[in-house]
Amino acid sequence: MRLATLFDPTANKATTVFVLPSGERIDLSDAVHYAPKDATFENFDNLAEVACHLDIVLPAISGWRSKRPQASSGVSARTRFLPPVPAPRTFRDFYAFEQHVKTCRAKRGLEMVPAWYDAPAFYFSNPGSLIGHDAPVCAPKGSNELDYELELGIVIGRGGKDIKIRDAWKHVAGFTIVNDFSARDLQRAEMSVGLGPAKGKDFATSVGPYLVTLDDLADRIDSVGRIHLNMVARVNGKELSRGNSASMYFSWPTIIEHASRDVMLFPGDLIASGTVGTGCILELGPENTGGWLKPGDIVELEIERLGTLRTPIVERPDATANSREKAGDALVTA
């Protein structure tokens, strides 16, 4: 099942919806009346809540679809996508594709770190900078090297601490697409300190459009916990990146076990895979892609069965004002 969170600017309200095969979006609250008797409206209220009550929500949607009430609440076309879970408690971004790690390190003249193979590495990113499908992105202040990153994400359903590999899938609500935008010039300077990415990653991460529930993807998960989905990135309609999520060195159960060690994972938490091999301009080389992202570009990340996550690249809001100020200074100086 495809689930999403939409925002209606006229009503100033976010709505959780399920999406029919036709593309029609139905307010999830319509399905409450087809849920088990012990269900509550709160179970359907937002996708963090829905994620940990899929055993209630999915049968309710099936009940709704079998009846298809005449007075169903189709959602206004004025709405825009938010991230499926707009404000997760935490967002962990892993580094799980060996090809990406090797290639990017080689471009900096570095060998592979042996410790990378010992345990899945990750950093905490900013849940407050998550944006939805079709939301515009601009390069952060001081950056001229804006890059996309083609990643797969999971949303935690059932929370838990010290989750075992054998139980990991019981804690997954479903999958989504993640574009971990990066300012490579800022990141390069920050990483020289030896601590980790900061402002080079802090400005925007696109997520969505949908949360596709685990039951819809179970046939693509192999015996070691890797999921087989084709992944493609396009800029202005031109394909630049192609890979498959099964090429992750670490499996999702391994990642979940590691992420939950000594800490609680909560419903709605977002975990990203890291960049698939060839999945960014840094890895491909800007000389081979037409340069870094620039205003006017359209970035599309497509993952099989999950849909397409689109992001327009725009000028910084203050760019025009800054240009006028510089022009004014030049006139005064002249």
How is this structure best summarized?
This protein is α+β, with helices and mostly antiparallel strands. The chain is built from 7 helices and 19 strands.
Low-confidence stretches: 323-334
CATH superfamily membership of the largest domain, which one? Answer: Fumarylacetoacetase-like, C-terminal domain
Mean pLDDT: 91
Radius of gyration: 21 Å
CATH class of the largest domain: Alpha Beta
Number of helices: 7
β-strand amount: 25-35%
Order of helices and strands: EEEHHEEHEEEEEEEHEEEHEEHEEH
The end-to-end span amounts to 64 Å
How would you explain this protein's 3D organization?
The chain is built from 7 helices and 19 strands. The chain has 334 residues and is an alpha+beta fold. It has 2 domains: 2-81, no CATH class; 91-312, Fumarylacetoacetate hydrolase, domain 2. A hairpin with a 3-residue loop joins strand 18 and strand 19. The longest helix has 15 residues, at 319-333. The N and C termini lie far apart (64 Å). 42% of the residues are buried.
